[in-house]
Amino acid sequence: MKRITSIVFISVTFFSSCYYDKEDLLYGPSQCDTSAVKYSVQVTSILNASCLSCHSGTAAAGGGVKLDNYSAVKAAADNGSLLSSVTRSLNPMPKGAARLNECRISELRTWIRNGAPNN
After folding, report:
1. Residues with Cβ < 8 Å from 93, sequence gap 6 or more?
2. pLDDT tens, 72-100?
């Protein structure tokens, strides 16, 4: 009886310790849908999460670059500085943080390619 109990205990311990919680590694990365990128949804989400802590208000920390309203973001998109800031290999924005993931960069690129509409 002790032998059966030991085998059951070892089996349960072994199989329960094999749990692998890395879904993207198991099933591949989630898909990035850039078919309907909107300023009011994706772009403002990116800006709020990664840019506005430095690039809003007086923008002193952001080198005078403000990204807290559509016209400022549109100007940065039109002159190429918005996309080049997040895609450059040396010191990409956001400063001092992890580079934006490829999906977020693709969303910005798609929005700019579509004329950077205020939608």
Report:
1. 50, 51, 85, 86, 100
2. 999 999 999 999 999 998 888 998 888 99
**First-last CA distance in the chain:** 70
Q: Are 73 and 67 in contact (CB under 8 A)?
A: yes
Convert the pLDDT of each residue in 67-77 to its tens digit: 999 999 999 99
